[in-house]
Amino acid sequence: MLKLYDLEFVPLIPQAEIAAAVQKISDSILKDFHDEIPIFVGILNGSFMFISDLVKQYPGKCEVDFVKMKSYVGTESTGKIKEIIGLGNPNGKPLIIVEDIIDTGNTIENIVNTLEKTGVSNYKIASLFLKPEVYKKPYKIDYLGMEIPNKFIVGYGLDYNGLGRNLPEVFQLKNKIK
Ligand code: IMP
Ligand code: MG
Fold first, then answer.
1. Does residue 100 line the site of ligand 1, with CB under 6 A?
2. Are 160 and 3 spatial neighbours (Cβ–Cβ below 8 Å)?
3. What is the pLDDT of residues 146-163, one digit of tens each?
4. Rounded distance, CA 55 to CA 172, Å?
5. Could you give the CA distance from residue 149 to residue 133 in angstroms, rounded to a whole number?
6. Which three-class secondary structure string do you get for the chain?
7. Average pLDDT taken over every residue of the chain
8. Is the CB of 127 within 6 Å of ligand 1?
9. Rounded Cα gap, residues 170 and 14, in angstroms
10. Disulfide engineering: 167 pairs with which of 19, 67, 140, 155, CB 3.0-4.6 Å?
11. Is the full-model pTM beyond 0.90?
């Protein structure tokens, strides 16, 4: 049992399962990009641990970059994207957008719109987790680690009000402590 502020969490995805999902994504990206130099673009803060493990697994040549966005407050998506710091010029190199989790898809929609506006079409989307019950956007997730139920999760980069990002495994919300 894990307690973060007022909420209790129980284990959901062990480290070995996460590692297998990361490996699967790395293999698929290598298959598609072994002749090129992709730029892995992590969406901060949530994707920092995933992108770190992903690029360590990735045996090909690559670059690493980051953008910063925020749509979650507490355990709910606000639907509004709060910040974007630098979705830069890729110099024609393919971009792999690296997300920790796709929930409503508002963040990914914002990124896709920003990329299309700046004329970037050479990109793919990778996400470690997807909540298929919530995600109703039309954008294809090119590389997906695993689908998860519509539960709030923490760990492996994901947080509850800033806590839990450092946990090496994933926990799901249990119930509110009265
Ligand atoms: P979306 O814009 O609703 O798809 O959500 C995108 C972002 O919200 C993700 O990149 C996460 O940072 C955050 N997020 C979504 N679901 C969860 C969750 O279950 N726990 C923690 N953060 C989440
Ligand atoms: Mg995120």
1. yes
2. no
3. 999 999 999 999 999 999
4. 26
5. 7
6. CEEECCEEEEEEECHHHHHHHHHHHHHHHHHHHCCCCCEEEEEECCCHHHHHHHHHHCCCCCEEEEEECCCEECCEECCCCCCCECCCCCCCCCEEEEEEEECCCHHHHHHHHHHHHCCCCCEEEEEEEECCCCCCCCCCCCEEEEECCCCCEEECCECECCECCCCCCEEEEEEECC
7. 91
8. no
9. 7
10. 155
11. yes
Positions annotated as catalytic residues are: 103
Closest CA to 57 of 100, 32, 27: 27
Q: What is the pLDDT of residues 73-129, one digit of tens each?
A: 677 776 666 555 567 665 789 999 999 999 999 999 999 998 888 888 899 999 999
Angle at alpha carbon of residue 80, lines to 79 and 85, rounded to 5°: 135
Residues near 163 by Cβ (< 8 Å), separated by ≥ 6?
A: 4, 5, 154
Asked whether 71 lines ligand 1 (CB < 6 A), one says yes
Place of tokens 């749509």: 71
Instruction: Please report where in the chains the tokens 């109703």 appear, as a residue.
Output: 136
Among the bound ligands, the one closest to the CA of 171 = 1
86 Rama sector, left if φ>0, alpha if ψ -120 to 50, beta otherwise: left
Those residues with Cβ within 8 angstroms of residue 121's Cβ, 6 or more apart along the chain or in another chain: 115
